[in-house]
Design goal:
Blueprint (H helix, E strand, L loop, with lengths): L2 E8 L7 E8 L5 E6 L9 E9 L1 E6 L16 H11 L4 H17 L2 E8 L5 H4 L5 E8 L5 H16 L7 E7 L7 H9 L8 E6 L3 H9 L3 H8 L13 H5 L8 E6 L5 H11 L4 E5 L1 H7 L6 H6 L3 E4 L12 H11 L5 H15 L17 E4 L13 E3 L2
Length: 395
């Protein structure tokens, strides 16, 4: 028995949008084909006003921080934000687990099918094992360039990493936190860990604030005080023009490399990374609402268009966002960058995220034999969304 879902527009992603399109699904919710409504009687169809699109991929999230919603003030900048998170992070496991479950349910309802999720602890692992969503868990390591911290850091986060069992719905990687927090010795450990496994994604926070580049260029900016307040020396931090240049010394072209935030990334940075790592294995995740929440700033998306960069979308955490909703991220991008089309940004939210996490064979497009999930978007206008548009997963 086939389900036949009709909408004003169906966005297969792999092909052009289909007006009055119909998605045919089998009993396993696999896409059989995309067709036009003229080939069917209305009585056969489930009819939706608006759009039908593949399930969204949330390429960057911190699910374990869901209990910190509204704790951090907006617009304070990254350094102050980090301090607020550290100060308020500890809560009871009962509260942490309840908020993780609620946040996952929010993502499910909002049409998200797969998540690239940061873990510094094991708090999300029990929920992830339930298989409600596909998760690529990035266990983050950081030693703040202090050699005395490197071995304890490896031991601490290796213990976290080992507690998550990999499965069809759970992948995992050991990853560097950010250029400003990972020493060369720790970087080498993390990257060499995957040298013989090409089906790995390496996630790294990148150029979220101007202070990050200033730290590497001439050891100036707010990170200097951040280090001093921790009684850490700046001496081991190598001099580079920009922070991404340091990270590119270690990242490899045979892994998928996922740069997160990129608020201050330039066109030259993008081209350098693509040259060093190869275009196909270089991805750029934007988290617009989190960028506005923390830094009150957005990346220059024109740089990514000009370089044909593979952009994907994340929500970051409820600590740095008002919701976990990819459609709201799309709205923000289109609000401030009306030169971008809905269709372009929808590609970022679907197939590009799926490719970045290595799940493009299952998610990201409406193609035969895939089970990408189906999301209904209402209150649309022509071939774009409106402020009133909402997303709901229906398959």
């Amino acid at each position: 028995m086939y389900r036949k879902l009709k909408a004003d527009f169906v966005f297969p992603i792999s092909t052009a949008p289909v007006e009055n399109g119909v998605i045919i699904l089998n009993t396993n919710n696999e896409v059989v084909k995309i067709d036009e409504d003229k080939n069917y009687d209305d009585s056969e169809l489930e009819i939706y006003e608006g759009f039908l699109v593949p399930g969204f991929v949330n390429a960057h999230c911190h699910l374990e921080l869901s209990h910190l919603k509204n704790v951090a003030q907006t617009g304070t900048g990254l350094i102050d934000f980090i301090g607020q998170v550290i100060k308020n992070r500890n809560h009871s496991q009962e509260i942490i687990q309840a908020k993780i479950i609620a946040a996952e349910n929010e993502m499910l309802q909002n049409g998200i099918v797969a998540v690239g999720d940061i873990s510094n602890a094991v708090d999300t692992f029990e929920q992830k094992q339930k298989g409600n969503l596909h998760y690529y868990t990035f266990v983050e390591y950081f030693d703040m360039f202090q050699n005395i911290n490197t071995l304890p850091t490896i031991e601490q986060y290796d213990a976290v990493y080992q507690q998550l069992a990999e499965s069809e719905t759970n992948k995992k990687s050991k990853v560097p936190h950010a250029p400003y927090s990972v020493s060369p010795k720790l970087f080498d450990y993390l990257i060499q860990n995957f040298d013989n496994n090409t089906d790995k994604t390496i996630s790294i926070h990148n150029q979220e604030t101007l202070s990050e580049d200033a730290l590497f260029f001439n050891k100036s900016g707010k990170f200097v005080d951040f280090y001093k307040n921790l009684n850490y020396t700046l001496e081991p931090i190598p001099k580079h023009l920009r922070s991404i240049h340091y990270a590119l010394e270690f990242l490899k072209p045979h892994h998928r490399n996922l740069f997160i935030h990129n608020t201050c990334t330039t066109k030259e940075d993008i081209l350098l990374a693509q040259k060093k790592l190869g275009f196909q294995n270089t991805y750029w995740c934007t988290c617009p609402n989190a960028n506005l929440y923390i830094e009150n700033s957005l990346p220059n998306y024109q740089y990514f268009i000009d370089t044909k960069a593979q952009v994907c979308i994340g929500t970051d955490s409820l600590t740095s966002n008002w919701q976990l909703n990819i459609l709201e991220e799309i709205k923000t991008i289109l609000k401030y960058c009306s030169y971008l089309s809905f269709e372009t940004v929808l590609n970022w939210a679907t197939i590009n995220g799926a490719k970045a996490l290595g799940w493009q064979q299952k998610f990201g497009t409406l193609e035969p034999e895939k089970t990408p999930g189906i999301v209904h978007i209402n209150h649309t206008e022509n071939k774009s969304i409106t402020d009133k548009s909402q997303a709901r997963r229906i398959v």
